[in-house]
Amino acid sequence: MVRNSKVLSKNEKMKKLFEAKNEDVEFSAVEADRDDIEALDRAQAADRRQLHEIIEEEE
Fold first, then answer.
1. Whether this model's pTM surpasses 0.70
2. Among candidates 13, 15, 44, which has minimal Cα distance to 27?
3. CA 54, CA 38: separation in Å to the nearest integer?
4. Rounded to whole angstroms, how far apart are CA atoms 29 and 59?
């Protein structure tokens, strides 16, 4: 894996975060099981934590 040596600015981090949230992923609540719902909850919590960290860095 090749890593980018450039340090991203806060705006670039925010842009990457919002771009990642717009991935084309299908989710069917009808076909979801308990593990799927738990994974969705964890992903949303991680997004909130990441966004909170980025906002704190800007202040």
1. no
2. 44
3. 25
4. 38
